[in-house]
Amino acid sequence: MNWPSALQLLAWTATAFLCGAIPFSVLIGRLILRTDIRAYGDGNPGATNVLRASASAHPGAKAWGLLAMVLDMAKGALPVAIAYEILNIRDFRIAPIALAPVLGHMASPFLRWRGGKGVAVTGGIWIGLTQGIGAIVGIVLMSIGYALQESAGWAVALGMAGIGSYLLARHSDRVLLVVWIVNMLLILWRHRDDLRTGPTIRHRRNVR
Questions:
Q1: Which residues lie across from 203 on neighbouring strands?
Q2: Are 125 and 51 in contact (CB under 8 A)?
Q3: Regions in the chain scoring below 50 on pLDDT
Q4: pLDDT at res. 208
Q5: 45 touches 116 (CB < 8 A)
Q6: Dihedral Cα 110, 185, 83, 123, nearest 10 deg
Q7: How many beta carbons lie within 10 A of that of residue 56, not counting itself?
Q8: What are the residue ranges of helices labelled H in 39-132?
């Protein structure tokens, strides 16, 4: 690798990491909802707790949770898509660039190296790497997982399996499979508490 390529890799990896580190959910909580979203639910500084905090704020405020989710996906999608699609970085150098937003979200320097579980930003990086298709497959299967059972960890695991299945079906480059494996390990580690027990089937409530 020559110096220009090495500097480009370093610059884009750092840019992607800092993009991922921007705590949009915490900012929305502080600036708009006037609360610390980490005081809700599992204490995670992510979009799910924006939903919980906004539900406590006033009716109709749940849209802020959706905005937080979109912004968390965008901070993964934009730097990765620019590097992969526009700058055409498609060799092994795309791996650290693609993983950097997830790591930035999980260990944000703006939050004293703490962060969220990385689900939305993971969807973002796969938007950038698969023109959205891989992310859609993952989101659909994750939604099915949520509908069938109650564990967030197992639903997320199903979504990650869906992304991997999509990559294998398309005979994707090995570098994308490497990104997926590392991404999956990071996500499963952050959901390790949920995964210690088996999935709990969601029972339908009787309608009277």
A1: none
A2: no
A3: 206-208
A4: 46
A5: yes
A6: -80
A7: 11
A8: 47-57, 63-81, 94-106, 119-130
The pLDDT assigned to 207 comes to 43
Question: Could you give the CA distance from residue 120 to residue 152 in angstroms, rounded to a whole number?
Answer: 13
Sequence-ordered list of residues with C-beta below 8 angstroms from that of 201, at least 6 positions apart, any chain? 148, 149, 150
Helix H or strand E encompassing 159:
helix 152-169
- CB within 8 Å of 121: residues ≥ 6 apart: 20, 72, 73, 75, 76, 101, 102, 105
Residue spans per domain, the chain: 3-21+73-195
- pLDDT value, residue 59: 55
User: Quick one: the chain helix, strand, coil %, rounded to 5?
Assistant: 70, 0, 25
Token reading at 23: 């705590």
Q: State if pTM tops 0.85.
A: yes
Quote the CA–CA distance of 48 and 36 in Å, as a whole number: 13
Residue 76: name the closest of 112, 33, 32, 46 by CA: 46
CA distances from 93 to 5, 21, 66, 86, 179 (A): 9, 20, 32, 14, 11
d(CA 162, CA 143): 11
pLDDT score for 42: 78
DSSP state for residue 87 in the 8-state scheme? S
Token representation of residue 151: 């564990």
Can you say how many angstroms the Cα of residue 96 is from the centroid of all Cα atoms in its chain?
15
